[in-house]
Each structure stands twice: as structure tokens, then as C-alpha cells.
Design a protein that fits this description.
The protein has 575 residues and is mainly β. Helices cover 2% and strands 43% of the residues.
């Protein structure tokens, strides 16, 4: 029989005794930003965020901080509303930090750069919310939702929710198997939710509600004393990583593991530095595991970092600990980077050289003020083409090699074209694969006087063929594209897996901005009709998944085009 824990009392966290500090560990949280935390957005450094349960604070460090390093900033004070903060996720697409407060109970949202005694941007709290001793937090940017573990439930909310808002869905009831769940992670593409639930991981359908049983369970401990706390989902390597506070271990399983499946790897032993581990995150960009350790009777609170593939009695690559760190019952840790799998880039800082790799005519691609003189920062394409269509191509590649790949989804960018002559323009790339016989899809808007056109084309991935564009289909824009004006180009690919092979639909749209020279103004009218491409099979060489990127093209023209606000976030793209 399981011995159910009936309370998560905040009072326990105010006590200094070792016994009650052990209770703090039972309330640790997981990695909650959809697994591998390759953070996004422009204009910030790689950083590490930590919630400190007993200090009512969030401390932020340089990503590589070690030893007794002080935080670069600290969020704390009465105005913050922090009250025994636990679950945390950093949303760098929308420049926000999410924190679950056990003591309130509430969910508070702050500006990513917030420090000192800063008030939240908004707070979710109140009797209608269903929040009840909340601990874990997961952010789903694909579906624009957040998920929270409560003492006997999982609640889901709109990302933009505020105040006393009812949840979109609640998983609760005897069939769910929930027993004071702690960590939670969401797989938005696999449509699954992973929950650390004592000595098992429960896996639910992402849209599960009510008294829904798990799709499967994964045994991660052998006794009721084993306490799974943090869970991190790594969709790049198809793995989940789980901390076990009582056993002082870090175990890695296949994402599709079920039942009493053996872990792929286990980090355990006196040399690991693990000391009541709580939250964990996978830093895929740097191939590292980052763990928040409560600290035991002999070890103080710490952050330990390991090689992602480490196992056995592996020593940490580095350890952050000491009085200057501000760590105090650290519960959750998240790592962000200038580049990430979900992104929205305005190119105002170093994100172009940091996050892109040029494939075709790279010496004619650069970042800086846009070529139309509007004052926006952009990726700029300049060159001359002959009568044969030419392309310029740069790939989103934050980890250099290999580039991250994506399946069906949305990608968009704001395009500005400086008129000169003939057909020229810029756009976005999806499902791009590199190598002989491999291709990708490009959607580009051409300004050409009275014959403006939206084109869908294949791009050749053979490096000897300079992209070699081949048009698949076009839509006339009826002379609707003006020079030195900002337009949003949106490509969406949809895969229907109910048939073999899958059926694909590719759509392309162009929108004006309300203010012609401001790509950050609201979207206005669509220009022309929607381009739609439904092939019986994808063109030869085009396969899923593939890379994303930005392109320009021209025919017998001098090209001057700029692209900014490049994103794969459907909400940011306006879809």
C-alpha cells in the first residue's frame, strides 16, 4: 500500500532543521519548459535561472558559472509576490519568466530581465483557478499553454491567462493515479504529458481531462521511499531524465519507455556531487545536464552540471555552490541561450552570427540596419543575378553542426524589398536537407512591378548546385507589393499521417503591416490569395524533418532585400 502524503505545508520550508529541510526536497520540481531548453529570442546572453524555495527568490547566473560565483541579478522582495517559489520556466520567445508559488498558491509572470523587488507582469491566482499546493510547471509554446501539477491534479491554462481564471482542462480523479505529483514536462509534438508521481512517471495524452488514466507508466523506483522529483524531456535525443531525491540519482530513459523498463543511463555514486537532487534541465545546445541539489546533512545547496551522456559515478563538469551564490533550497533550474528550437529573432544583437550558417552566396548576406532605411535591424541580401534564377540561403543553426530539424509547422519572417528592376525578393525555408539528392522548400515573395508573385519552390541541398530553385506553384499578388514596405511571409506545412505515405499540405500567405515601415506593427490585410500546394507525395528529395532558414531570390535583377522578425512560433506568425 502507498502511504499517501496529504499536505504540502509551506511552514516546513521555514524551518532550519535537517529533518524539515528533507521535506523541502519532497517538494522539488522538474524541468518545465518542454524538455531541452535551447532558449530563444534576441538581445540576451546565455544564462541559468534558479528558484530558491526558502529564500523566496529567483537567482540568475552566467550559464557557465561555477564555484562560489554571485548571481548576475536576483529577483526578490515583497513586491515580487514570491512565496515559496518552485516550478519555473523561461519563455524567451515572449521574454517572460514563469514561477509557481506554493505559498500563495499562484503562478507569477515576470519580465525576463526582471531583478530586485520587481512586481509580476501578471498573476494567475484565486479560487476559480483550481491551483492547490502547486509545484511543477511546464510551458507549451506550440499550443500556447502552461501546465501545473497540484496536490491531486494537473491544470492547464492559456499562456496569456491572468487573474482568477478557470483552467482549460483539469486531470483529476482516482483513475489518474495522481499521488502528490511533482515535476511535469510536455511534448507538444508527440502530444504527451510526463508527470513525476512518487516512484513512477505517469504519461497522459496532452489533451487529457477529467478522470483520465495514464497512457502508460514508467517505474523509476522500487520502494515508496524513492521520490521522483524533476523530469526533463529531451526531444532532440528522444529521452527523458528523472531525478530521484531519496536515492541521489539521475536516470535517463527512452522517451517511449513503459513499465519496468531499464534506464539507458544512471548517474549515481559518491563522486557525482548529487545531494538530494530536485529540478533538472537538459541543455542540448551544450550537451549538458543541469541539476538543482537541495543539499543534505554534509553538502550544502548546489547546482551540478554533467555531460549529457554521463553515467555511473561521473564527476560534475562544474559545480556552483557557496555563500555568495544566493542558493537557498534551490528547487528548479533552467538554462537559456540566444538561439533555441522555438524562436522569434529581430537581429538587433548577435543572433545572426550566433544562430545561422550560410549555405549559398554567404559573402552577400550580412546583418545590420535594413536596406530600406526604416531603422530596423535585419538580415540583408545584396547581389546581382543573370537570366537564370539565383538564390541566397542561410540556415538556422544554433549548434553549428548538425542543424536542428523540424517537421510540419509554421515559419514566418518580415520582408522588405528595395525596388530596382525585374523579379527579386526574399522569404523563408522549411524541410531543408543538405546533401546530394536532398532538397527543401522555399516560399518567397517577388516584387516585379505589376507582376508581383508569391512562389513556392524546391531548393537543392547539393552544395555544388548553389540552391538550384525549381518553382512548384505560384500565386499572383496583383501588383500588391510596394518597395520599402514591410510584409509578413508565412509558410505552414501540415502532415496528415492517417495515410501511407503521409499527405502534405503547404500554404503560403503574405500580409501587409499596418505601418508600412514598421515590421513590429500589427498585421493588416492579406495581399493576394493564399498559395496552396497539395502534392500526392512531396517532391523528390524533400523529406521531413528538415532545417529552417531564410532565403532570397532574383531573376535578371539587382537584389537588395532585408528580412527581420524570423520565427517558428505560430502565435508570433499570426496563425
Amino acid at each position: 500500500m502507498k502511504s499517501a502524503r496529504t499536505s504540502r505545508s509551506p511552514r516546513a520550508f521555514t524551518m532550519l532543521s535537517i529533518a524539515l529541510i528533507g521535506a523541502v526536497a519532497a517538494l522539488g520540481v522538474l524541468q518545465g519548459s518542454c524538455g531541452a531548453a535551447r532558449a530563444q529570442q534576441s538581445g540576451f546572453a546565455a544564462e541559468m535561472f534558479v528558484t530558491n524555495f526558502s529564500a523566496n527568490s529567483v537567482t540568475v547566473y552566467q550559464r557557465t558559472a561555477s564555484g562560489n560565483a554571485a548571481p548576475v541579478r536576483t529577483l526578490s522582495g515583497d513586491a515580487t509576490g514570491l512565496a515559496f517559489p518552485a516550478g519555473l520556466a523561461v519563455d524567451t520567445v515572449h521574454d517572460e519568466v514563469w514561477v509557481v508559488n506554493l505559498g500563495t498558491p499562484s503562478i507569477a509572470v515576470y519580465s525576463r530581465g526582471a531583478s530586485g523587488n520587481s512586481a509580476p507582469l501578471r498573476t494567475i491566482s484565486g479560487p476559480t483557478t483550481g491551483l492547490a499546493q502547486p509545484i511543477g510547471l511546464a510551458l507549451d509554446l506550440v499550443h500556447d499553454e502552461i501546465l501545473v501539477t497540484n496536490s491531486l491534479s494537473i491544470t492547464a491554462y492559456r499562456r496569456t491567462a491572468s487573474g482568477d481564471t478557470a483552467p482549460l482542462r483539469t486531470i483529476t480523479g482516482p483513475a489518474t493515479g495522481l499521488d502528490n505529483p511533482l515535476g511535469v514536462a510536455v511534448d507538444p509534438t508527440g502530444d504527451e504529458v510526463f508527470v513525476a508521481n512518487r516512484h513512477v512517471i505517469n504519461v497522459y495524452s496532452r489533451t487529457a481531462t477529467g478522470n483520465a488514466p495514464p497512457l502508460r507508466t514508467i517505474t523509476v523506483g522500487t520502494t515508496d521511499q524513492d521520490n521522483a522529483v524533476g523530469i526533463a524531456l529531451d526531444t532532440v535525443n528522444d529521452e527523458i531524465t528523472v531525478t530521484n531525491r531519496a536515492a541521489n540519482t539521475l536516470a535517463v530513459y527512452s522517451r517511449i519507455a513503459s513499465g519496468d523498463a531499464a534506464p539507458l543511463r544512471v548517474i549515481a555514486g559518491a563522486g557525482t556531487g548529487l545531494a538530494e537532487p530536485l529540478g533538472v534541465t537538459v541543455d542540448v545546445a551544450n550537451n549538458e545536464l543541469v541539476v538543482a541539489n537541495l543539499g543534505g546533512s554534509e553538502a550544502g545547496p548546489s547546482i551540478t552540471v554533467y555531460a549529457r551522456t554521463a553515467s555511473g559515478n561521473a564527476s560534475p563538469l562544474r559545480t556552483l555552490s557557496g555563500g555568495s551564490t544566493g542558493l537557498a533550497a534551490p528547487a528548479f533550474v533552467d538554462v537559456i541561450h540566444p538561439c533555441a528550437r522555438t524562436f522569434s529573432l529581430d537581429f538587433a544583437d548577435q543572433e545572426y552570427p550566433d544562430c545561422f550558417r550560410e549555405l549559398v552566396r554567404g559573402n552577400e548576406i550580412s546583418d545590420g540596419p535594413d536596406l530600406g532605411g526604416t531603422g530596423q535591424f535585419a538580415v540583408n541580401f545584396k547581389g546581382v543575378s543573370g537570366s537564370t534564377p539565383s538564390v541566397w540561403l542561410t540556415i538556422y543553426d544554433p549548434a553549428d553542426e548538425p542543424a536542428p530539424t523540424y517537421g510540419a509547422g509554421t515559419v514566418c519572417a518580415d520582408v522588405l524589398i528595395v525596388p530596382f528592376n525585374n523579379a527579386k525578393g526574399a522569404g523563408v525555408v522549411s524541410l531543408m536537407n543538405e546533401g546530394v539528392g536532398k532538397k527543401g522548400l522555399g516560399l518567397v515573395v517577388h516584387e516585379a512591378g505589376n507582376t508581383d508573385t508569391l512562389l513556392l519552390m524546391t531548393l537543392d541541398g547539393d552544395p555544388t548546385k548553389n540552391g538550384k530553385p525549381t518553382t512548384l506553384t505560384t500565386v499572383s499578388l496583383n501588383g500588391g507589393i510596394a518597395g520599402r514596405t514591410c510584409y509578413r511571409v508565412v509558410m505552414t506545412t501540415v502532415e496528415d499521417r492517417s495515410t501511407t505515405p503521409s499527405k502534405w499540405t503547404v500554404t503560403g500567405k503574405v500580409f501587409r503591416h499596418a505601418t508600412a515601415t514598421d515590421p513590429n506593427s500589427r498585421l493588416a490585410a492579406q495581399v493576394g490569395s493564399t498559395l496552396t500546394y497539395r502534392p500526392a507525395t512531396l517532391p523528390a528529395g524533400v523529406t521531413s524533418p528538415g532545417e529552417l532558414g531564410i532565403m532570397a531570390s532574383s531573376v535578371a535583377a539587382v537584389l537588395n532585400a532585408s528580412v527581420t522578425n524570423f520565427s517558428n512560433d505560430p502565435v508570433r506568425c499570426g496563425q
